[in-house]
Design brief:
Elements (H helix, E strand, L loop, with lengths): L10 H12 L4 H7 L4 H11 L5
Length: 53
């Protein structure tokens, strides 16, 4: 099984992810924009406390 390298989002990408999340997009749809799984998005949002909403 091939694993992807760890994704490190730029500040601009983080802002776009946050904006999309605030507009109500799902983690899966946001992940597809960045060619990443929803777990990558969840990890980012979890670190800000946003995934608890």
């Amino acid at each position: 099984m091939a694993y992807r390298k760890r994704t490190i989002f730029s500040e601009k990408q983080k802002m776009e992810i946050w904006d999309r999340w605030q507009r109500g997009e799902s983690m899966g749809s946001i992940g597809r924009v960045f060619d990443r799984g929803s777990s990558s998005i969840y990890s980012l949002l979890e670190s800000t406390g946003a995934s608890d909403q």
